[in-house]
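User: I need a structural model of tRNA (guanine(9)-N(1))-methyltransferase from Aptenodytes patagonicus for a docking pre-check later this week. Nothing fancy, just the predicted structure tokens so I can convert them on my end. Input:
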Amino acid sequence: VLFLFCIFQMDTTQESYLDLFPLDAIVYLTPDSENVLEDIDPNKVYVLGGLVDESIHKKLTLQRAQEQSLQTARLPIREYMVKTVNTKNYHSETLAINQVFDVLSTYYETRSWPAALKAGVSSGKGYVLPDAVK
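Assistant: Understood. Predicted structure tokens for tRNA (guanine(9)-N(1))-methyltransferase:
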């Protein structure tokens, strides 16, 4: 099922995003992309890569996007956040769909990546904003 999120409306459909939008308008968001999402383009459609167990299916979303000849991008976590020392030495840029949506919607409202990442990336991921490092 495809969920289409607009500013104030959400629709669901059984149709593939590949059938609904031109390929050059689709950006597949995946933490494995080499391309950094620098801004949200209102003329693009952003596909959230999905819930994937990163330890088992590493790079699955990137591979899927490449097979479909889609543009890819990742959230700018490395560019705006720093790794923090934690007991598990765990650092992950893989987020749940709701976290990615929180980041995107906050960025859309504020046009601030630090504010957006703070809203969606929990400290349990091992990343924090530089001003949060003590």
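Before docking, keep this in mind: The helical segments are 17-20, 60-67, 77-80, 97-110, 113-120.
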